[in-house]
Design the sequence.
């Protein structure tokens, strides 16, 4: 049979909470806690040293660990679309990403290009390919923004940032690929 109560002749020790520190100011109590924590941290540091003393270590040459940034050159193009117009638009998109986008001119003084400027440089002088790519881009823009868009340059210049124009060149590349152009 299990007993659930202590026998009457046994006394259960009672633990009393330590009396709160009275008469100490906040600064004095903080200094006391700081001293206690410092002692605990010192004990932990000694315990760490004792527990890791048997582990063999070799000195590390920081020249082997700390390195600077590595210049890897230009970002490689992703695999190009197999169709010529789609591949041209994909290259134009990549050029805008890496070389910068501008509005108001084909190429600004820093070398950044507008949408048509990127197509033109990537077409490499092939005016038919350039015209086809600009036509697909205008088609993609009109699908997204309606037939009120007059031209690729007017659409490009209507934006203050590169986000939408770059997105449209990327979408046009996908549209050209889907269309087999």
Sequence:
């Amino acid at each position: 049979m299990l007993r659930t109560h202590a026998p009457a002749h046994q006394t259960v020790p009672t633990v009393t909470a330590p009396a709160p520190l009275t008469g100490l100011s906040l600064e004095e109590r903080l200094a006391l806690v700081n001293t206690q924590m410092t002692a605990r941290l010192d004990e932990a540091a000694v315990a760490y040293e004792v527990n890791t003393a048997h582990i063999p270590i070799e000195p590390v040459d920081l020249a082997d660990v700390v390195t600077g940034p590595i210049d890897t050159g230009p970002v490689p193009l992703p695999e190009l679309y197999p169709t010529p117009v789609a591949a041209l638009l994909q290259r134009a998109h990549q050029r805008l990403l890496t070389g910068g986008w501008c509005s108001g001119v084909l190429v600004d003084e820093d070398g950044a290009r507008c949408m048509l400027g990127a197509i033109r440089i990537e077409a490499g002088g092939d005016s038919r390919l350039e015209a086809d790519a600009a036509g697909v881009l205008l088609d993609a823009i009109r699908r997204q923004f309606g037939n009120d868009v007059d031209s690729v340059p007017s659409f490009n210049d209507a934006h203050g940032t590169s986000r939408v124009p770059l997105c449209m060149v990327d979408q046009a590349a996908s549209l050209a690929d889907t269309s087999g152009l």
About this structure: The mean pLDDT is 84.
